[in-house]
Design goal:
The structure holds two protein chains of two kinds. Chain A is an alpha+beta fold. Chain A is 23% helix and 45% strand. In chain A, helix 1 (2-29) packs antiparallel against helix 2 and helix 1 (2-29) packs parallel to helix 3 (80-109). The model of chain A is unreliable at 1-8 and 13-31 (pLDDT under 50). Chain B is of the alpha/beta class. In chain B, strand 7, helix 9 and strand 8 (269-273) form a beta-alpha-beta unit. Classes of the chains: A alpha+beta, B alpha/beta. Chains A and B meet through helix 2 and helix 3 of A and helix 3 and helix 4 of B.
Chain lengths: 448, 305
C-alpha cells in the first residue's frame, strides 16, 4: 500500500507544482488580479476534476485488485503493487498529457501580458489609369498598438509607413471611467467628424477614399486636439461629440498644425449622432456634423488662397442603412451609406498681388451600396460628386463598381473600376487592392 | 386649498411608492442560455436581457448601438468568456461607458471561470484559423459545463449583492438539482450516441460530443472561422467515407447548402442544431435547448430524421 500512496502523493505534488509554477509565471507576467484569480480558479477546477478522476480510477483499481485477488489464483501481496503502480502511473500520465497543452499554452502567454496588443496592416494597390499609366503602389504598412494605461484610461497609437516616410497617424489617450457617461480623448486622433472620415484607408469599403472627403475634409479626419463625447441617459441611443482641434484633416493644407494660435483660430466640432432600430435586421445610423473655424487667415500656407480672416463652416450629414439578418450576419446583408458635405469659406478669386476674397459655398456627396453575398464576396457601387471648394473650376463625378473578396477575416482582395469625369480629364481607372492584417486586431465601435 | 392638499397627497403617494419600489438588479447577458440561468438564480431580484437572441453566430453578433444603451444601464454583464464574444462585446462595453461592467470591474461576470476548456491551442498562429487562445469557448452545449457556468453566475451575483447571497445560493441549488436530474436522464438516453462520429460546420459541438461520448471528425470550415475551399471539401468527404462518419451537423447560423451536399455525398445523416437556446422555437430555455439537441441527435442516429 505504501508505494501506491507515495506515488499518489508524488503525482499530486507534481500537479500542485505545475499549478504553482504556472501561477508564478502569471505573477512574473503581471496579469491583473482578476485574470490571476480566474486562472487560479480554472486551475483549482482542473485540480478538483483531476482529483475526482483519480479517485474514480483508484476505485476502479481497487475493484480490479479485488477481482484479481479473488480465487482461484490469489496473487501474493508482493505481486500486486507493481501492477497497481503501473496502472496508476498510466492514468496519471494520461491525465498529465491531457492538461499539459493547457498549462504550456498558459505559461507561454503569461510573460507577454504587459505588452500592448500589436498589429500590422499591409495595404498595397496595383492601379492603371487611362491617362496616367500604371503603378504598383505600396500604400502603407500600419502598426497599431493599444493597451490600458491604468484604471482610468487606455492609449493607442498608429504609425503609418508609406513611400513618403513614417508618420504618427494617431496617438491618443482615452478615458475609460469618467462619470456622467463622458469620454475624453486627447492627442492626435481621427476627429469624430462624419462617418468614413474616421476610417483608415485600408478600412474603407472601397479602394480609394471618396474624392469629396479628400477635398472637403482633407482625407482622414486626423486632428491634434481634445474631444469630449457624451452618451445621453435615454432609452434612445444619442451621443454628442464636442471637440477643439488645431485643424481637421490629415491633408488639410489650409492651416498650419504646428504654430500656436488664438482661440478663434482653432477648429471646433459638434456632432450629435443617433441610431434607429427598424427591426431585428434593419437599422439606420444618423449623424450631423459641424466643424467651425472662427477665423482662417494667417495660417494658410503658400498662396494665401483661403480665409481672409473669416470663418469656415464645414457641415456633414451622414446616414447609414444596414440590413443584417441575425441568423446569417456573416453571410447576408446590405449596407447603404451616404454623406452630404457643405463647405463655406472665403476664397481668393483674384491673384496673389491683388487678392479678391469672396465667400463660396460648395457641396459634395458620396453614396454607396454594398451587398454581402457570402462570407467571402461583397460587391458594391459607389457614386462620388463634388463641387470645387473655390467654385473656380467645374464639378467632379465618379462611378466606382467594386468587388471585395475576403479570403479570411484577415486577408482581403478588392477589384475596382472607376470612371472619373472632372474638368479636363475623363478616364477609366482600374485597381487591385490586397490587404492583410497581422497580429492583434480589434473590432472597433467607430469602424462599424 | 383642497386642490393643493390633493396634489401634495398624490405627490407624496407617488414619491413614497417610488422610494419603496424594489429596484431590480439589471443584468445584461451575451447569450440567452446565460440569461435563463441568471433568471433562475436571481429570481425576482433580477431583470435580465440578452444581447443575442439565439439565432446568431456568437462570433458575429451585430454590434448595434442600442446594445450600448442596454449595457450603459446594466448593473452586471454576464458573458460566456474564453473570448467567445470578442467580435462585439469589448467594443460595446467601451461604447457603453459603464466602468462597473468593464473587464475587471465588479459587475463583469465571466461564466467560464470554472470551466476546464477543451482544445486549448498549444501554438497561437493565424495559420491555424481564428483561434481562441484560452480554448474552445462553446462550452454551453454541455449541460455539465452549464452547471459550472451557473455556479459562476451565482458567485458573481453574490459578490456584487452579498445581502442576497443566501437567496442566490438557494436558487442555484434548486437549479442545479433540476439540471442534475436532467443530466442523469440525458446521459442514460444518450447511450446510442456513444462512438458516433460527427462533422460540424464550426467546432462548436466539441463539448457536446465529449459529454455524450461522440467523436468529432472534422469541420466543414477549413479552420475555425475560415470558409471551406473545394479542395478541403473533397478531402473531408474522402475522410468521412473512410472513417464512416455518421452525422453532419449544420448549426442554424451557417449556410445549409454545403452541409447538405457533404451529407449527401458521404451518406451521413444531416442534422440541424442551434448552438444556444432561442436558436429554434423549441429551445425556449437552457434545459429545453440541451434536450432538443440531444433528441435531434438521437432521432438522426436511430433513423428517425
Amino acid at each position: 500500500m505504501q508505494p501506491r500512496l507515495r506515488h499518489r502523493q508524488l503525482a499530486r505534488a507534481g500537479l500542485a507544482a505545475a499549478v504553482v509554477m504556472s501561477f508564478s509565471a502569471t505573477r512574473v507576467g503581471g496579469q491583473t488580479a482578476q485574470e490571476l484569480q480566474q486562472e487560479l480558479k480554472a486551475m483549482k477546477a482542473q485540480m478538483q476534476e483531476l482529483q475526482e478522476k483519480m479517485k474514480k480510477q483508484e476505485e476502479l483499481i481497487n475493484k480490479l485488485v479485488t477481482q484479481q485477488a479473488a480465487p482461484p489464483t490469489p496473487p501474493t501481496a508482493a505481486e500486486n503493487p507493481p501492477a497497481q503502480e503501473q496502472l496508476e502511473k498510466r492514468v496519471t500520465d494520461n491525465i498529465m498529457q491531457k492538461i499539459q497543452p493547457s498549462l504550456a499554452a498558459a505559461n507561454k502567454t503569461f510573460p507577454s501580458q504587459f505588452n500592448p496588443a500589436i498589429g500590422l496592416i499591409v495595404d498595397t494597390v496595383a492601379s492603371y489609369q487611362e491617362n496616367g499609366g500604371g503603378n504598383f503602389e505600396f500604400r502603407s504598412a500600419e502598426i497599431g498598438i493599444s493597451a490600458n494605461v491604468d484604471p482610468f484610461a487606455r492609449g493607442y497609437a498608429i504609425f503609418n509607413g508609406t513611400n513618403d516616410g513614417v508618420e504618427v497617424e494617431e496617438a491618443a489617450i482615452v478615458t475609460t471611467s469618467l462619470p456622467y457617461n463622458l469620454t475624453v480623448k486627447g492627442g492626435r486622433f481621427f476627429a469624430d467628424f462624419g462617418r468614413l472620415s474616421k476610417f483608415h484607408d485600408h478600412d474603407l469599403p472601397f479602394v480609394n477614399r471618396p474624392q469629396v472627403l479628400d477635398t472637403f475634409v482633407g482625407g482622414e479626419s486626423q486632428a491634434d486636439g481634445l474631444e469630449v463625447n457624451y452618451l445621453a441617459p435615454l432609452e434612445q441611443y444619442l451621443t454628442l461629440t464636442l471637440g477643439a482641434y488645431n485643424k481637421i484633416g490629415a491633408e488639410n493644407e489650409q492651416v498650419d498644425n504646428n504654430r500656436p494660435r488664438a482661440l478663434n483660430r482653432f477648429t471646433y466640432l459638434a456632432h450629435p449622432a443617433t441610431f434607429i432600430n427598424l427591426n431585428d435586421s434593419s437599422s439606420i445610423d444618423l449623424g450631423a456634423n459641424l466643424a467651425y473655424t472662427p477665423k482662417v487667415d494667417d495660417f494658410t500656407t503658400d498662396d494665401m488662397e483661403a480665409g481672409n480672416g473669416k470663418a469656415r463652416y464645414l457641415g456633414d450629414i451622414d446616414i447609414t442603412f444596414r440590413y443584417t439578418p441575425l441568423s446569417q450576419a456573416q453571410y447576408r446583408g446590405l449596407i447603404w451609406g451616404t454623406e452630404v458635405l457643405y463647405n463655406s469659406e472665403n476664397w481668393n478669386t483674384g491673384d496673389e498681388t491683388t487678392p479678391v476674397f469672396r465667400r463660396e459655398d460648395a457641396v459634395g456627396l458620396y453614396s454607396y451600396l454594398e451587398a454581402r453575398l457570402s462570407r467571402r464576396y461583397y460587391p458594391g457601387f459607389m457614386f462620388d460628386y463634388q463641387q470645387a471648394l473655390d467654385r473656380q473650376t467645374g464639378d467632379l463625378i465618379s462611378y466606382s463598381p467594386y468587388f471585395t473578396i475576403w479570403l479570411s477575416e484577415f486577408q482581403r482582395l478588392r477589384l475596382q473600376y472607376t470612371y472619373l469625369t472632372e474638368p479636363a480629364n475623363h478616364e477609366s481607372q482600374f485597381f487591385l487592392q490586397w490587404t492583410a492584417v497581422l497580429g492583434s486586431h480589434v473590432h472597433g465601435f467607430r469602424d462599424r | 386649498m383642497k386642490r393643493s392638499v390633493l396634489f401634495i397627497s398624490l405627490l407624496s403617494l407617488f414619491l413614497f411608492s417610488d422610494a419603496h419600489a424594489e429596484e431590480k438588479i439589471k443584468v445584461v447577458t451575451t447569450i440567452p442560455d446565460l440569461a435563463d440561468m441568471t433568471r433562475n438564480i436571481g429570481g425576482n431580484l433580477v431583470e435580465v436581457s440578452s444581447i443575442a437572441t439565439g439565432v446568431e453566430d456568437i462570433h458575429a453578433v451585430p454590434m448595434k448601438p442600442s446594445f450600448a444603451v442596454q449595457l450603459n444601464r446594466a448593473d452586471l454583464v454576464v458573458l460566456l468568456g474564453l473570448e467567445a464574444e470578442h467580435a462585439f462585446l469589448p467594443a460595446l462595453l467601451e461604447a457603453a461607458r459603464n466602468p462597473r461592467i468593464l473587464r475587471d470591474g465588479p459587475g463583469y461576470i465571466d461564466a467560464s471561470v470554472y470551466i476546464t476548456p477543451l482544445e486549448v491551442p498549444v501554438r497561437i498562429d493565424r495559420a491555424l484559423g481564428d483561434q481562441h487562445p484560452m480554448g474552445n469557448p462553446h462550452y454551453n452545449v454541455d449541460p455539465v459545463m452549464g452547471k459550472a457556468a451557473a455556479k459562476a453566475i451565482a458567485d458573481g451575483l453574490s459578490r456584487n449583492y452579498p445581502e442576497h447571497a443566501a437567496t442566490f445560493k438557494q436558487n442555484l441549488d434548486a437549479y442545479l438539482a433540476k439540471l442534475d436530474a436532467a443530466i442523469m436522464r440525458w446521459e442514460a438516453e444518450a447511450a446510442p450516441l456513444k462512438g458516433k462520429k460527427l462533422v460540424s460546420y464550426h467546432p462548436d459541438l466539441v463539448y457536446f460530443a465529449e459529454r455524450f461520448g461522440m467523436e468529432p471528425a472534422g469541420t466543414i470550415e477549413i479552420r475555425a472561422g475560415i470558409d471551406p475551399t473545394p479542395g478541403h471539401i473533397a478531402d473531408l468527404e474522402d475522410r468521412m467515407r473512410r472513417e464512416k462518419v455518421d452525422l453532419v451537423v449544420r448549426e442554424v447560423q451557417y449556410p445549409a447548402g454545403l452541409a447538405e451536399t457533404v451529407a449527401q455525398a458521404t451518406g451521413a445523416k444531416l442534422v440541424e442544431l442551434p448552438v444556444m437556446s432561442g436558436g429554434t422555437p423549441e429551445t425556449r430555455d437552457y434545459i429545453s435547448f440541451i434536450d432538443y439537441n440531444l433528441r435531434t441527435m438521437l432521432k438522426a442516429v436511430q433513423g428517425g430524421a
